[in-house]
Amino acid sequence: MATSDILKEPLLLRLSRLFGGLRGDLTGGLTAAVVALPLALAFAVASGVEPKAGLYTAIVAGIVAAIFGGSSVQITGPTGAMAVVLVGIVAKYGLEKVWIAGVMAGIIQIALGVAKLGQLVKFIPYPVTAGFTNGIAVIIFCGQLNNFFGLKLPRSEHFLPGLWQSLTHVEALNWAAVALAVVVIATNVLWPRINTTIPGSLVGLVLATAIASAFHLNVPTIGTIPQSLPMPQGIPHWNDFSVIRELINPALALAALGSIESLLSAVVADGMTVSEKHNSDRELIGQGLANMIVPFFGGIPATGAIARTAVNVRSGGKTRLSGVIHGLALAIIVLTLAPLAEQIPLAALAGILMVVSLRMIEWEAIGLLMRATYSDFAVMILTWLVTILFDLVLAVEVGLIAAGALFIKRMSDLSLVKIPETEVFPPGTPLELGKEIAVYRVDGPVFFGAAERFATFLRDEPEVKYLILRLRFVPNMDTTGLVALEDIYHDLERHNCRLILTGLQPEVQQLLERTGLLNTIGLSNCFETTTEAICFISPQIACSQPIADDLKTKELMELID
Predict the structure, then answer these.
(1) Rounded to the nearest 5°, which phi and psi values hold at 194?
(2) Per residue, what are the HEC states of 204-246?
(3) Which of 71, 163, 366, 477 has its CB 3.0 to 4.6 Å from that of 278, i.e. a possible disulfide?
(4) What is the chain's Cα-based Rg?
(5) How far apart, in Å, are the Cα atoms of 439 and each of 224, 421, 466, 468, 530?
(6) What is the C-alpha separation between 179 and 112, in angstroms, rounded?
(7) Cα–Cα distance between 314 and 25 in angstroms, integer?
C-alpha cells in the first residue's frame, strides 16, 4: 500500500494543479468577458462602425489570438488605440475597405513575427510610449463629446475639426443624454468602493439603460444587434490590386499600432505574473492571424488589451484557455442578451469611454518624466502633440527620431559583466553563500538603448538570493533605464531575491532620490563598496573594513566624492 500511495501521489498532485488551473482560467476568462462586453460595444462605436462589429471582433480575435499568440494570458479585442486609427480610416475609405486593410495588416504582422522582429518594440523609449498613450487618451475623450452631449453630428476624420464641431454645436445638447453619461461616470468611479468583483462599467451601462427605458428618454441608442454568432462572409474587392495599393498606408498603420500595443500589453502581463514569459515573435504571428481572420466575420482589427489582460491575470487566468473562455462567454452573451443591448444609450458608452480615457493617462509617467530629465519630458510632449494633431504612427516615428537624437548626443556603450566569485568574495566565504550572491559590474550610462539588455541579462538566476549591481562607472541614467531598474527590483522581489546597489554616483543617486526609487529600493541596500555589501549579507565573514549598515544620503555622497 505504501508503494502504491507513493506512485499515486504525483498523479494526484498533477490533477490538483490541473483543476486548480482550470478554475483560475474559468474565473479569469468569465471576468474578462464581463469587462470586455461594454468596452467592445463602446470601442466599435468609437471606431465609427456598428456595435456588433466590436462584439464579433472580441469573440473571433480573442479566441484566435489566445490559441496562436505568444502570451498565455493575453486578452485580445477592440481597443481605444485602434479605435483612434480606425475612425479616420472608416471615415475616408468605408468599412469594406477597412476589412481589406485589416487582412493586409495581419499579413504584415505575421511577416514581422516570422522575421523575428518582435523584440524591436522593447527598444521604443519610455517617453515615446507614454506620449502616444496619453495622446490616445485625449483623442478618445474628446471623440466622445458628441455622444456625451447627445448630438447627432457626422463623425470627423481629424481631431481638431471634430473637437471644434462638437463645441460649436453644444447649444443643441440633449440634457437627458448628458444626465445618463454622468450617471455612468459616477457609477464607474463610486462602484469599486462597494464591490470589486463586478466591473463598474457594466453596472453603469445596465443602470443607464434601465433609466432610459423606464422613463422613455429620447436619446440615441445603439440600435439593432443580431442575435446570432459571427459567421464567415466574403470581402468585396479583395482581389482588386488598385484597392490594395490604395490601402498600403492604412494597413501599415494598423500593423504598426497593433504590434506595438499587443507587445506592450504582453510585457505588462509578464510583470504581473511569475509564470512563463511571452514570446514576442509568436505574439505577432498570433495577432496577425487574428487580424487576417476577423474581417471575414465582420469584425475590425484588434490588439492585445492591457486592461482586460490585467483583469484576466488578477482573476486567476494562467493559460490560453482563459482567453478562449473569454471569447466563448461573449458568444453566449450575444446569443442570449442581444435584444436587451439594442436599448443601450450611446451616452452611456460615452461615459464608459471617458472614464477609460482618463484612466489611460499615465499620470505617474508624466510626474516621473518631469522630475527626471527635461529632454525626456520634451520627447513625451512632442509625441503627445503629434499624436493629437496628426496620427499615431507619425507620432511614434517623430518620437523615435527625437529620442534617437538625444541618444546619439549622450550615447555611451554599456558594459554589463558578471564578476567571478574569486575576484569579489572575501576569503572564507562559504561555498553555499557564493551560489546565492551574484555580482555584476555596469560600465557606462544606462540609456534606453541598453535598458532591455540591462533588464533581461539579470533574470533567470534561480539560485541567486542577492543581486549586487556595482554602479560606480555609471555616471548618469535616463528615464527608461530608471524604469528598467525599477522593473528589475520588482521582478527580483517576486522571486525573493534582494537587490543591492554599490558605488552610486551623485547624478544617479539624485535621480533615484527625486523619483522615489531610492526609497523603494531602500537606503539599507546601498553600500559604498561591494565588499561591504557582502559582509553585510553574511556577518560571519571576516571583513577588514567596516560595514555600512545604512548609508544616509549625505554620508553616501561624501564617500563617493
Answers:
(1) -95, -45
(2) HHHHHHHHHHHCCCCCCECCCCCCCCCCCCCCCCCCCHHHHHH
(3) 71
(4) 26
(5) 63, 8, 8, 5, 8
(6) 47
(7) 11
Q: Of 225, 230, 229, 244, nearest to 99 (Cα)?
A: 244
DSSP lists the bridge partners of residue 418 as 440
Classified as helix, coil or strand, 440 is strand
Edge-first strand listing for the sheet containing 526-527: 415-418, 437-443, 466-473, 498-502, 526-527
The pTM assigned to this predicted structure is 0.73
Burial status of residue 176 (CB atoms within 10 A of its CB: 0-12, 13-18, 19 or more): middle
Closest of 417, 451, 412 to residue 530, by C-alpha: 417
The grid coordinates listed for 453 are 539588455
Give me the residues paired with residue 221 across strands: 345
CA atoms within 13 A on the CB side of 265: 33
Give 401-436 as a DSSP string: HHHHHHHHHT----EEEEPPHHHHSPTT--HHHHHH
Q: Which long-range contacts (CB under 8 A, 24 or more apart) does 556-559 make?
A: 556/504, 556/509, 556/523, 556/526, 556/528, 557/506, 557/509, 559/528
Half-sphere exposure of 526 (CA within 13 A, CB side): 27
**Residue type, position 354, single letter:** M
* Residue 474: how many other CB atoms lie within 10 Å: 23
**C-alpha–C-alpha distance, residues 533 and 470, integer Å:** 10
**CA 396 from centre of chain:** 16
Grid coordinates belonging to 395: 507620432
Number of C-beta neighbours around residue 46 at 10 A: 29
Residue 334 and residue 222: Cα distance in Å, rounded? 14
Place of cell 499515486: 8
Q: What is the DSSP string of 298-354?
A: T----EE-HHHHHHHHHTT--SHHHHHHHHHHHHHHHHHHHHHHTT-BHHHHHHHHH
Angle between helix 51-68 and helix 280-293 axes, rounded to 10 deg? 140
- Orientation of helix 126-143 relative to helix 159-168, angle to 10°: 30
Q: What is the DSSP string of 523-536?
A: GGGEESSHHHHHHH
Cα–Cα dist 96/61, whole Å: 18
- Per-block mean pLDDT, blocks of 10 residues, the chain (561 long): 44 47 85 89 91 94 95 93 88 91 96 89 80 87 92 80 89 93 94 86 92 93 84 84 90 90 86 76 96 96 90 87 94 88 90 89 86 86 90 78 73 64 68 76 70 58 81 84 84 85 91 92 91 80 48 39 37
Q: Whose CA is closest to 160, among 394, 360, 391, 395?
A: 391
Q: By CB neighbour count within 10 A (0-12 exposed, 13-18 middle, 19+ buried), where does 343 fall?
A: middle
